[in-house]
Amino acid sequence: MADVPAPPRQKLHYGWIVVGIAFVSILVAAGVRSSVTILIVPLEDEFGWSRASISFAIAVQLMIFGLVGPFSAGFIDRFGLRRTIVYGLGMMAIGMGLLPFITQVWELLPILGLFIGLSTGALAMVMAAMIANRWFVERRGLVMGLLSGSTATGQLIFLPTLARLVEHLGWRSAVLMMGAILLAAIPIVWLFMRDDPRDMGLKPYGAPADAPAVPVRPRSNLFSSAFAALGMAAQRRDFWLLSGSFFVCGASTLGLIGTHFIPACLDHGIPETTAASILGAMGVCNLIGTTASGWLTDRIDARILLCWYYASRGVSLFFLPYALDMAGPWGLAVFGLFYGLDWIATVPPTLKLTTAAFGAQQSSTVYGWIIVMHQVGSAFAAYGSGLLRTLSGDYTDAFWFSGALCIIAAIMVTRIGRTKPSAARPALVGAEA
């Protein structure tokens, strides 16, 4: 009897290589963005600038980061993923090169806003959403979980190292090292990133062999298409529920903890390197939590996940002031574990709900506007927390206020997709696994 030939071995789909390159790019961009938090106290000490003034510049950066989101989808459609990532990394490298030469606090605004804010906004969750929707039919939740988790991985890798550089060699050495890493990443992206499965003669991962080709989206004006999507989305209650909950997400993560956790630790006598290591350890937990969230999003009602994420985040923020006052590291370790697992776990279910409500073609641009609200919340908390610290001398009120917002968001998300179907307001499809 003749031997039955073994089935041909399937090759690795190139979409996973694209995810890997995007993971590294977002990781480096997140490392640059998060490195600003270790500069707050050194700048305060060297130049005598108030924490509120420095926080205002960071708030501008976070705001511009968000405002880029709705237009980055059109920019990627016009110029491609590869060029967009290369341009973004290049702009960040210029910003890092200029930062060591500042002498006035206003100079932080163009550097953090124009060079860092614009570029990190282009290399953020809208790009991740486009990769997930363009390159994948199956495993989209997992892909979004991985790419969302890359922001935490950048934090994990860079913050402790940069904090040690700041402590031993000064903050300028840390900034210049980040610039060198950005320049090193550019040729990797240029050589290996691809814009679309059709560039490799492939279909998206998980697409049936006989599936019709996805039509090429016509090029349109970046601004008109973005505002047209906003006009359509603004008529839907789900858009405002998603945007409002993401406002809270940004306020309680990038704006509060991402910006002020290390300065808060310093206020309580915890060394900067220790605080940076704790924040980096949150990145490990976040990578695990966000990847798991992507896996769960493919299987469980996204609204249930979001309700749990926001409620548990609120409880952890209520606990943080007590953790900072505890003798020993155990209080902060418990906070870091629970908060880290939850940090950006909201992204995969939020994207799934957005795609279900607005469709795959429009969801990336609509999601960009939802990210605007995320960054408005980030900017609000970054400046507001710094101002509260300047006025009251500690961050307790900021932690409690953000915790209360998280509890409100946990209630809000349960109402997404609950409206009565009609011709003008179609039913939400796909929110549940």
Quick overview of this protein structure:
This protein has a single domain (14-195, 222-415), classed as MFS general substrate transporter like domains (Growth Hormone, Chain: A), CATH 1.20.1250. 75% of the residues lie in helices and 0% in strands.
Largest sheet composition: none
Arithmetic mean pLDDT:
81
Quaternary structure of the protein: single chain
List low-pLDDT spans: 421-433
Report the end-to-end length measured between terminal Cα atoms. Answer: 46 Å
What structural class results from the helix and strand content? Answer: mainly alpha
Classify the helix fraction into a percent range: over 70%
DSSP helical segment count: 16
Secondary structure: number of strands: 0
When the domains are counted, the total is 1
Task: Write down the overall geometry.
Answer: globular
Instruction: Indicate the CATH class.
Output: Mainly Alpha
What is the radius of gyration? 21 Å
